[in-house]
Specification:
Elements (H helix, E strand, L loop, with lengths): L1 H17 L10 E10 L9 E17 L2 E14 L8 E14 L3 E14 L5 E13 L6
Antiparallel strand pairs: 1-2, 2-3, 3-4, 4-5, 5-6
Amino acid sequence: MIRLIIVSSLAVTLFSGALSAYAIEGYPGKTWGDLRHEMPISGDTKENTIFDSWIEQGVYWLKWNDIMLNTYGIVRFKWDEQASPWNNTVGPGVGIALEKFFPQGLFVRTGVEFMFDQQYETGRTDTKGVVYLNWYGWWDLKK
């Protein structure tokens, strides 16, 4: 945890110094969650409740047309009633991403994230670097 605080502080200091001539474009916050209870109809699996969530706070440093540069801190949480250690985790992370929002119904994001993934039942912590591309889309068939 100390390493995360040091790395986060260093990143914020470097970015704020390098970009001090620019105005901050925003402070975007995001959250996501999924709570579900699985009830198998066939097979030998058991009923299971799973909760998966994250919350993120960022800073939009720069804007090029409609593309935003975002640095962020994130906390992820996952709980599985069946107590699979890899599905029972909590952990912070930091990242940097390019984001674009299309008003027609699409949000696209690509970036790099550094995260700690701690299995809270076993105490094991995995440190991960992740390169990602993700998106979210929506539509209305009536429109």
